[in-house]
Amino acid sequence: MRMKVKYLSIFISILCCLLPVSAQNTLSNQYGTSASGRSLGTHDRNGNPIDTTAVTDASTIPIGLHQWKVSRRLGNVIPIAVDTLHAGFQNTNDPAGPTGQYNYLGNLGAPRMSRIFFDREEESQFFFTDPYDQSVLKPDDVTFTNTLSPFTNLTYYKSFNNRSSEERFKSYFAINANSRLGFGFYIDYLYGRGMYNNQSTAFFNGGLFSSYRGDKYDMHFIFNNDNLKMRENGGITDDRYITDPLDMAEGKKQYASTDIPTLFNKIWNHNTSYHAFLTHRYNLGFYKEVNDSLANDNLPTDSIQAANDTLVSPQKFIPVTSFIHTLEMDFNGRKYITQDDAQNRQYFEHTFFGNDSIDQNRRTSIRNTLGISLREGFNKWAKAGLTAFVTHEYRDFTLPDSTNVPDQRIIKHYKENVFYVGGELLKEQGKLLHYKVLGEFAVAGEDAGQFRVEGNGDLNFKFLKDSIRLDVNAYVKNLNPVFHYRHFHSKHYWWDNNDLSKIMRTRIEGKLSSQKLGTTLRVGVENIKNYTYLANTSLPVTNSSGEITSFKNNASVKQFGGNIQVFTAMLQQKFQLGIFHLDGEVVYQKSSEQSILPLPELSAYGNLYLQAGLVKNVLQVSLGADVRYFTKYNAPDYSPVIGQFYLQNPDNQIAIGGCPMINVYANLHWKRTRIFLMMYNINQNSGNSRYFLAPHYPISPRILKMGISWNFFD
Questions:
Q1: Which among 409, 418, 423, 331 is positioned nearest to 370, based on CA atoms?
Q2: Sign of the torsion angle spanned by Cα atoms 632, 638, 643, 644
Q3: Where are the alpha helices (DSSP H) in 378-436?
Q4: Burial class (CB in 10 A: 0-12, 13-18, 19+), 21
Q5: Distance between CA atoms of 107 and 126, rounded to whole angstroms?
């Protein structure tokens, strides 16, 4: 077969220069007839899960393009759909999430927290970056690519405001040196000026990745850097500037966002992280001749192509035993910067270290996992894979500490070692049933006695010409509170909690999906014992008449010794009548201790849109509006000192919610390009105007937003 060479040159000003070289076309028709592969069932011709919202244009996804992620602990490969999302593209950069279920501080890149309890992730040992999950990538978030030709994605988002614009630029590039070795990089730059004073975010995330997918040796490597700076304003000084502007001194009907005073100035949080991740394995096994290569779903695309080119039956490697090593290294630093000492002494209950302007703490973590795996499917009796592993984790935290000299500080190290043993039972092959059960126990070290048992599975079957899928997820966890719940020293907050009990969590959750009806029902219940949380413990300041005039801010860690139950039921429904579509989501939640774990009882999302193909298989257009709503509740407050959400002070609570927010938009998907225009918060100033997604942090006023995403490949 003849080979031809093409050059793809993509230059990105300042940020990157992409020069993909020597691309190979091994097929006479690289794109085929249906890039979505819907006719092939649940996976496309490349083996990728199908994105059912993608344009069915033949040039959308080239033949030979595979994408996947890897599990963090053992490096198991998880195939994913190539990102060709059309429906919902307008929400891919929304801090509130694709269905508006996050509370956040109002501007792009700001800290956020899901209102749906079952969607919240576990706290990490360096929890300062947890609220930035929209931007910060973990190893199991990174996408790996195998591609016959260089692949590039460029995405740009912007809001249109002369003074307070928000912008985000993302790039992704992948190339293969050969059929097994691939590498690439990604860049994510975000700048959110913020619509309110003293509020801005600046974020940079960049990383390199590489993979080798051989028969006997398999490797995945990631190096990543995060740099995030958040200017903190503490919220607006009086909510009435939003809710009742006529009550304010100027008597305006409404105030420009930049005219509203904020609580703080000259306060920043700055997080910097470096991550290195390596997972690799050596496989022992045997080769098996496959007479009909296309009948075997697990045969790599390059093996199939080699068979077609050489007219011989392909040889498929059957792994029997794998020896696994995973290394994860994290270096995290945080600075809390405050440059107005008079402001600090007025607002905070404590001001340690005098007028020193910077708090710093760091974390170093090195985690090694060694495993041996008996692989699934090497003979007819091996119905599942079984892996045993041991893990050692070294953690070094540094915090400022005091001395006998007033206002003097030193750096104190907290070094922790933990040893774990565990096992995993995994079934991935077959179409009917898949499951994974993992158990891990800390046998020695700081977390000794900690354990977790997690399991999930899915059952897929046909019923009345419909494809039904039943997912089950359950776990039992007995966890030591993360380090910064146990120890934290700073300019304004200080605690050493050596008597915290382990947190026992038990959850069972089921999800039933119907492809034909477009219905998904999700129900779950969780019990938590020794729930551990951050609380606002500010002290009231009273006048001579005993009236509370203000509060001196403070925070502490608390633990509820009893049991808390959380029940969740979620219904997702998609309707279609011709070109008209309605996607809806309704979530009901009930917390048995609403004063400790507050949740909105009802959250809802609706997206009504018209979708049509104007040019067959080339141009698809969507015009629509989405609505977000949740019932009133005492949502967690936000503390700039720790960059975390914490329980509101019971003496000074404010409820948010009970007010819908509406966005209108237009989506266009033309060949390899996706574009959206959105008018955000179009119903501003209607109803009761309680547009807050966190106490004292109003959302952005009405503003026009846009986004564009290009895929480039040879």
A1: 423
A2: negative
A3: none
A4: exposed
A5: 23
DSSP symbol at 120: P
Higher pLDDT pick, 122 / 549: 122
Q: Which amino acid is at 184?
A: G
Is residue 3 pLDDT above 50, yes or no?
A: no
**What are the backbone dihedrals phi and psi of residue 568, each rounded to the nearest 5 degrees, phi first?**
-135, 135
Span 425-458, pLDDT tens digits: 999 998 899 999 999 999 999 999 999 999 999 9
Is residue 633's pLDDT more than 50?
yes
Class of domain 5-713: mainly beta
Dihedral (Cα; 524, 530, 534, 537), 10-degree rounding: 130
Q: Confirm if 501 and 548 have CB atoms less than 8 A apart.
A: no
Q: What is the DSSP string of 294-315?
A: GG-TTS-HHHHHHHHHHTS--E
Question: Exposed (0-12), middle (13-18) or buried (19+): which is 356, by Cβ within 10 Å?
Answer: middle
Q: How far apart are CA 566 and CA 560, in angstroms?
A: 14
d(CA 658, CA 583): 21
Tell the residue number behind the tokens 């801010």, with chain if given.
553
Instruction: Name the amino acid, one letter, at 429.
Output: Q
Over residues 166-184, the mean pLDDT reads 94
- What whole-number distance in Å separates Cα of residue 621 and Cα of residue 684? 26
Residue 527's alpha-carbon distances to 119, 235, 392, 543, 599, in angstroms, are: 15, 33, 29, 44, 15
Helices (H) and strands (E) counted in the chain, each on its own, are 4, 39
Res. 310: pLDDT tops 70:
no
DSSP track, 335-378: EEEE--HHHHHHHBS--TTTT--EEEEEEEEEEEEEEEEE-TTS
For residues 112 and 134, the answer to whether their CB atoms sit within 8 Å is: yes
- In the chain, domain spans: 5-713
- Contact between residue 347 and residue 552 where contact means Cβ atoms under 8 Å apart: yes
Tokens of 231: 């200017």
pLDDT per position as a tens digit, 537-560: 999 988 888 788 889 999 999 999
pTM to 2 decimal places: 0.86
pLDDT over 60 at 51, yes or no? no
pLDDT at residue 654, as a whole number: 92
Contact 201, 108 (CB under 8 A): yes
Confidence bin at 49 (pLDDT 50/70/90)? low
> How many CB atoms within 10 Å of residue 342?
8
Beta bridge partners of 450: none
Residue type, 386: L
Tokens representing 326 are 């995973």
E strands within 616-672?
A: 619-630, 637-639, 644-646, 661-670
Alpha carbons within 13 A on the beta-carbon side of 202: 7
Instruction: Judge whether 603 and 116 are in contact, CB under 8 Å.
Output: yes
* Residue 184: CB atoms within 10 Å: 23
